Every structure is written in C-alpha cells, then in structure tokens.
C-alpha cells in the first residue's frame, strides 16, 4: 500500500462521474461543491481541449446534474449527463517565460506553463488479467499561464520539446 500511495501523490486525481463512481469520487464532488472548486476542472471525456468547466461554472454544472437527498445534502446521486465528464484535480505547474511557436512562426512570448502527458497502452481480458501494458510516448505542451484551456489542436497550447539541463 505505501508504494501505491506514493504513486498516487505523483498524479492528479481523476474522479469518475458515471455509474461506476465510488465513494472516493463522490467525496471529490462534495469537496468541489464545498468551496474548493478552484482545485478542480470538470472535463468532457474527449480529446482536443475546450469545453472544460472551472470555478463557478463547474459548481453550476455539477449542481444542475446532481440530485441531493431529500433531508440533507449528505446523499448525492449523479445525473446521467455527468457520465461524459471526469472531475480532475487541477495542475498548477511552475511558470516560466517562453516563446510559443505554431507552424514555425512565433505566436508570442510571455509567462507560460507546461504540462507533460505520458501515454501507455493496456489490454486486459474480461476478468482483469493484463495481457499487454506498454509505455507509448509523451506529449509536452506549453500555454500562456493565464489560459485555463490546454488543447493543442484547439489552439490553446503549443507542442514543446523538453530541455534537460
């Protein structure tokens, strides 16, 4: 268990809002609704960036799609429309000054943040036996630090190359 806990600390929390939501997922929803909405982003399960909900709009989207218990807010039932989203802990990477390039042209310069995504492929049998688990590459994207969205294809971020000192 200590190894698993250590690994979890290295990644942002991802919480299901579908029929498979666990008590841990519901606890994250409660936390987002309880004044900590700035620590989360509500993301549709699609690629390309955009259509994310932050802050007050995140709270509004959750409240529109949740049924609370009749006597108090302890009981939460997630609406089916939320199953197309995940609730994710926000990343707050360090800022740096960068020159952002797109299609070989300077898009601009300024304070920016970068996010590294590592990918893998997993194939498992219906009973959960892992048949294939392989690292499949990475993507480093950089965007201006005052931009919430982060999709490269949607124009919010640019591809980057790591510079190792």
What features would you describe in this structure?
It is a single chain. This protein is α+β, with helices and mostly antiparallel strands. The protein is built from three helices and nine strands, in the order H-E-H-E-H-E-E-E-E-E-E-E. The protein has helices spanning 2-9, 23-33, 55-64; strands at residues 14-16, 40-44, 66-68, 76-78, 85-89, 96-102, 105-124, 130-144, 158-159. The strands form three sheets. A four-stranded antiparallel sheet has the order 6-7-8-9, with no helix packed on it. It has a three-stranded antiparallel sheet with strand order 1-5-2, covered by helices on one side.
List the helices and strands and how they pair.
Elements: H1 2-9, E1 14-16, H2 23-33, E2 40-44, H3 55-64, E3 66-68, E4 76-78, E5 85-89, E6 96-102, E7 105-124, E8 130-144, E9 158-159
Antiparallel strand pairs: 1-5, 2-5, 3-4, 6-7, 7-8, 8-9
Q: What is the radius of gyration computed over CA atoms, rounded to a whole number of angstroms? A: 18 Å
The residue ranges in which pLDDT falls below 50 over 5 or more consecutive positions are: none
- Helical fraction equals 10-25%
Shape: globular
What is the spatial order of strands in the main beta sheet? 6-7-8-9
Largest sheet: 4 strands, antiparallel
Number of DSSP helical runs: 3
Summarize the structure.
The chain has helices at residues 2-9, 23-33, 55-64, and strands at residues 14-16, 40-44, 66-68, 76-78, 85-89, 96-102, 105-124, 130-144, 158-159.
